[in-house]
């Protein structure tokens, strides 16, 4: 255990202390938090309310995820507004077309991403590279070879910065695993987030000394629940991937959810209420409850293990005085 993880554990060691959380993946740049849904404005921006619900609900830190160069800049800008917010820098596999078609454009884009990452590391705002990886479910947005080219290019940044990886994997079989194995020496730490694959793949990821991120999309089916049972707590991380990946009544683990939130439809928005089908960092408690129910342990155990793992993965999650 790192010194940062040990400190995080000791600060929450009291058995009667309320659970504390780190949301390792929140898409807080999404238009839904500005009140816009599917291109239609429904209500005023409420990101401040969303964050206050998070802090009131036991969130200690939140990592704001980015998926493009421009999003990376915006994520850093947002994260700098609060000492409890951090960001990633990177290009999502479905958006790797932004690296361009030439070696010159690729090098230029990598350089720009590196500059954003390094500038964000100076004050501790940038916690990881990502969201990067492979996605074979949405090749209509970016073909596989372009995805691999972008992924490998971003590993150059990992080598230079030693930032951990926030990894996307969707329907790739063992292709992503093979890339990670071949290039494991090029990056320090990492998490395969929003995991919804097999127990066999999970075990192989753990063998690479990587973490596995679990959210509502990881808990939809009975098969998903069986997989979560196999993931060691010391390699498991909780996330919301909000505003997506909400836990719904039709999902296999929904009966484990104990914590409910006042909710309104987006068209009937009301301050102080969550929006139906729009997840928020505060909902991380529901993810913890389902994981705990599946594993037959307490929610507090799951929350503390994930929290400790998050501090270890991201190197302490502390801003630097500038």
What does this structure look like?
- This protein is α/β, with parallel strands linked by helices.
- It has ten helices and twelve strands.
- An eight-stranded parallel β-sheet has the order 1-4-5-6-7-8-9-10.
- Helix 3 runs parallel beside helix 4, helix 4 crosses helix 5 and helix 9 packs across helix 10.
- Residues 2-7 and 9-14 have low confidence and may be disordered.
The secondary-structure element order is HEEEHEHEHEHEHEHEHEEEHH
Helix content: 25-40%
Question: Rg from C-alpha positions?
Answer: 19 Å
The main pleated sheet reads as: 8 strands, parallel
Shape: globular
Strand order of the main beta sheet, please? 1-4-5-6-7-8-9-10
Unreliable parts: 2-7, 9-14
**Number of helices, counting only DSSP H or I runs of 4 residues or more:** 10
Helix/strand class = alpha/beta
Separation of the first and last Cα atoms? 28 Å
Beta-sheet strand percentage? Answer: 15-25%
How many β-strands, per DSSP?
12
Mean pLDDT: 95
């Amino acid at each position: 255990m790192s010194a940062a993880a040990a400190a995080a554990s000791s600060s929450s060691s009291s058995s009667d202390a309320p659970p504390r959380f780190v949301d390792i993946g929140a898409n807080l740049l999404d238009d839904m938090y500005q009140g816009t849904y599917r291109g239609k404005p429904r209500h005023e921006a409420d990101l401040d309310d969303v964050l206050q619900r998070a802090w009131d609900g036991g969130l200690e830190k939140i990592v704001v995820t980015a998926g493009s160069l421009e999003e990376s800049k915006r994520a850093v800008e947002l994260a700098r507004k609060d000492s409890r917010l951090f960001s990633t820098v990177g290009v999502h596999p479905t958006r790797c077309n932004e690296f361009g078609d030439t070696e010159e454009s690729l090098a230029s884009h990598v350089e720009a991403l590196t500059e954003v990452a390094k500038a964000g590391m100076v004050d501790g705002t940038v916690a990881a590279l990502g969201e990067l990886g492979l996605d074979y479910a949405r090749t209509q947005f970016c073909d596989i070879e372009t995805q691999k080219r972008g992924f490998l290019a971003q590993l150059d940044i990992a080598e230079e910065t030693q930032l951990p990886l926030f990894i996307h994997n969707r329907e790739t079989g063992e292709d992503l695993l093979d890339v990670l194995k071949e290039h494991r020496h090029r990056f320090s730490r990492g998490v395969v987030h929003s995991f919804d694959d097999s127990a066999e793949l999970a075990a192989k990821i753990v063998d690479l000394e990587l973490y596995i991120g679990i959210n509502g999309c990881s808990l939809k089916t009975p098969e998903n629940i069986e997989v979560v049972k196999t993931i060691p707590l010391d390699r498991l991380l909780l996330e919301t991937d909000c505003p997506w990946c909400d836990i719904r009544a039709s999902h296999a683990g929904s009966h484990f959810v104990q914590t409910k939130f006042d909710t309104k439809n987006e068209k009937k928005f009301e301050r102080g209420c969550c929006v139906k089908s729009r997840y928020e960092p505060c909902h991380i408690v529901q993810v913890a409850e389902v994981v705990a129910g599946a594993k037959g342990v307490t929610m507090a155990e799951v929350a503390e293990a994930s929290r400790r793992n998050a501090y270890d993965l991201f190197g302490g999650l502390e801003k630097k005085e500038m």
